[in-house]
Design brief:
heterodimer; A: about 270 residues; alpha/beta; about 45% helix; B: about 220 residues; 6-stranded parallel beta sheet; 8 helices; globular
Chain lengths: ~270, ~220
Amino acid sequence: MSPDTAPCGGLPGDRLLEGHAVLVTGGASGLGLGMASAMAAHGAAVMLACRRLETGEPAAASLRDAGYDVTCIRCDVTSAEDLRAAVDATIAAHGRLDCMVHNAIASTGGPTLIHEIARQHWDAMVSTTIRATFEGARAAHPHLRDAGGSMILMTSSAGMEGSASLPVYAMVKAAQRTIAKGLAAEWGPDGIRVNCIAPVALTPAMERAYAENPVLQERLLERTPLGRIGHPLDDVGPVAVFLASDMARFMTGQTLVVDGGGFLGL
Amino acid sequence: MADGTRTLLVGNGPLADGLHDGLVDRGHLVAQVVPVRSDDWTDVGTGIGTGVGLIGRPDLVVHVPPIPAGPVALVDQSTQQWVEACELPMAEAFAVARACLPYLSERARLVWVVPTVAMGGAAGFVGSAAACEGIRALAKSAARQWGPDGPTTAVLAVAPEVALPPDTDPAARIPGAIALTGPALGRPGDAYGDLAPLLDLLAAPAARFMTGVTLVADGGVWMAP
């Protein structure tokens, strides 16, 4: 059996990320914390990159209390310097970077009309998503190449089907998905995989969205065959573990929709 | 639709110029405007207002977003190059949608013309491809938001060879160049004869029930659903 066809050596009950180092932006709560927790539970050393240490550090501490290897660094993803520092801190702490998850995003706000959207909202959405992906990818690339690692970007079904209420969010999430495809093509020869997760999960951001758009929860549930909204740790976390692991070693440029079947357009 | 269709064309370069000539020859009254500062929504709005002043309220608005030459690997790009490849075209497209809306009747249509790399991504054009996919999402969102009484939208996805700048390195590993087979129709098409007629079609009342859609016109390379 050639090395290329050797078993990948990972089964669902295993610790799939043992010896891995992972960097998660927006890791203090919601999806970021859910994915980080799942990856830590699978043996990864996790660096939470958080805009506010006052929320990030308690999150990291609670995971350490659970026996996981988790640290936190302050990181405003709109700053290229902060992103580089987060990558450098991961290397300093763990000597490697196997996976970077870019999850952070500015608040989407409530439903907005295209002709009423403020420039400030546009700039915040662009800087925290596609610009941060660019700067983060540049910083992480040499280390991901050394580790044969992967990058995970967060997208949304809104980016695939459009959104009447959140048009800028839909744009940047669509762009994230094509960034992943392009990077998958560019970085494949370096042994780096790049994939996307399109989740729907009950997070603080989702709860704010419910408050700003009272019909949102009902509509989401109506279109979800599995009849519930996902959980950041239990439903989305395992998918992040899978994509970061050797189990997904032949997957790149792909989007996994983790929403209970709400979006079936792929 | 043809004769008398008032068309506002936003953008420049060989693709936009070919569309201009093709639409004029099909009887459109065309005003072509070129935003000076893509990231300045006011500047884009001023340009659109000027174009509307020349032809009246448009029946068709066509935006050809700017795409810098390449390929350039993402890790070799400066932040400014990234902004020009990805963020400015998206901002310009958004500004076009904002600025033209007050001038559009419920019978009007807004069309963006982008390369098919939007859907498939492209090494060396990561930012440009991402911007174009963001614009496709804008077309869908605008269609949903503007609803049954608003203007319609569409995207015309064309071969990368047609949409990318003429000084693009021919060795660029764009999907059309690395497809297992070439275009089913044997050529990537041209703006004047192959693509302008499709814009004419999209402006016709007969196409009114299509909105938010992407029409792929690359000679038969991209056939994914």
